[in-house]
Specification:
single chain; alpha/beta; TIM Barrel; Immunoglobulin-like; 2 domains; eight-stranded parallel β-sheet; 20 strands; 24% helix; globular; disordered N terminus; disordered C terminus
């Protein structure tokens, strides 16, 4: 039964993680079209998904990215006479079963979208006529103007339909309905007998979410394509960790990766960034150390070499996918105002030091320079290390993005970091030639 929990011994304490459906033992990795295709005129389509799948299978799957996850916009937001969701046949003429088969044939997994409320979340903009209740907690309307649901629910029916399509992951969005629908859909997915990673997008900070309900859960609002929002969402996820720790089977999710999108265009009326590649590295490094799901939100058909180099960095990915599964946390910071547009002047935004334990006695640390105009010398001390690793006195250190190595280092250690850039340090006990030092 999917409701059973997993107990793991980590850092000397017994910690209970998400339900044990034997899935998401490491953070899921894949691609979702929402950040790049949701606001285009045509929206996402079958051809776009198949094209993204080819890129993933050819360039990204060797690094662990294996899931193509649809978002809102694949359906008409209506149900047919049998109560089944109706797929938008103009965008997906071959249907969802065919699409799932195409993805599986390339060795990829198929992600699907649903929502707990009366409609799927984008129904107002993508399909204004959707007034007949496409959410699983609602029946079709006889009088759409009243927007009142009957007692009939579609949790089981939707779950069975998705299972018949070959779905491997469900994103269950948190709009328009009661939070109790999260548990109802969890149980409906389990009853199908098909393993499906369950991703819940609802308000964690209100205390409604529980780690037994899902394999991953959103910790904040949708992320925009800005450096400030990347830092902000990481910090929110860091705060949530205090009462919902992530670990094998269940992960805090600060939302999708905007690497390749961050800094490329104006956000909140501010000028484009001078350092889009550095800001992309910053988000990727943070997502890796906090063990966030790595779901890409950029265009894959014309992905740049710089973006590809960041998201396929083997050492950074090894940190994210480390078997210990301990979420890194913010240890020290100064000067940052989260989720604000870039100022016209350049005051010091300060710095952040994050770290977390890795398996085999290792650790990872992110040293982030939040200043927008000049390099900064940042220092990692024993006080900023995970408590379980503080006793180690000599470290071999590899910086993930440059490959620079230091051996036999005694903390404190310093590094010069460029504007809005990071150093991602992977630390291995000196003389221990483990997977992290050599990856």
């Amino acid at each position: 039964m999917i409701a059973a929990t997993v107990a793991l011994l980590a850092c000397g304490a017994l910690r209970a993680y998400a339900e044990d459906n034997h899935l998401a033992r490491t953070p899921p990795m894949g691609w979702n079209p929402w950040n790049c295709w949701a606001n285009t005129g045509s929206g996402v389509s079958e051809d776009i998904v198949i094209g993204a799948a080819r890129v993933m299978a050819g360039k990204l799957k060797p690094f662990g990215y294996d899931t193509i996850a649809l978002d809102c916009g694949y359906s008409t937001k209506h149900r047919d006479a049998m109560g089944d969701l109706v797929v938008n046949s103009s965008r997906f003429p071959h249907g969802m079963k065919w699409l799932g088969d195409q993805l599986h044939a390339q060795g990829l997994k198929f992600g699907m979208y649903g929502a707990l409320g009366y409609h799927q979340c984008c129904s107002g903009s993508a399909d204004p006529t959707a007034d007949d209740g496409s959410g699983p907690g609602c029946n079709r309307e006889t009088d759409p103007a009243k927007k009142v649901c009957r007692n009939t629910t579609y949790f089981s029916q939707d779950a069975k339909l998705w299972a018949s399509w070959g779905v491997d992951l469900l994103k269950f969005d948190g709009c328009g309905g009661p939070f109790s629908s999260v548990k109802s859909m969890r149980d409906a997915l389990a009853a199908t007998g098909r393993p499906m990673v369950y991703s819940v997008h609802s308000t964690v900070v209100k205390g409604e979410m529980d780690a037994s309900l899902a394999n991953m859960w959103r910790t904040g609002a949708d992320i925009g394509a800005s450096y400030e929002q990347a830092i902000d969402r990481a910090m929110i996820s860091n705060n949530v960790t205090a009462y919902i720790p992530g670990g094998p089977g269940g992960w805090n999710d600060p939302d999708m990766l905007q690497v390749g999108n961050i800094g490329v265009k104006s956000t909140n009326g501010s000028p484009p960034s001078l350092f889009p590649e550095a800001e992309g590295r910053t988000q990727f490094a943070l997502w890796c150390v906090i063990k966030a799901p790595l779901l890409l939100g950029t265009f894959l058909h014309n992905i740049s070499d710089a973006t590809l180099a960041t998201i396929t960095n083997k050492l950074a990915i090894a940190v994210n996918q480390d078997a210990l599964g301990e979420q890194g946390v913010l240890r020290k910071s100064g000067g940052y105002m989260p989720d604000k547009p870039r100022p016209t002047t350049n005051p010091a935004y300060g710095f952040q030091i994050w770290s977390g334990a890795l398996s085999k006695g290792g650790a990872a640390a992110v040293l982030a320079n939040l200043e927008p105009s000049k390099p900064q010398v940042l220092t990692l001390t024993s006080a900023e290390m995970p408590a379980s690793r503080a006793a180690t006195t000599h470290w071999d250190i590899t910086e993930a993005f440059t490959g620079a190595k230091q051996t036999g280092v005694t903390l404190p250690a310093t590094v010069t970091v460029g504007p809005h850039d990071v150093a991602l340090w992977v630390l291995t006990p000196h003389g221990q030639h483990g997977q992290h030092a050599d990856a």
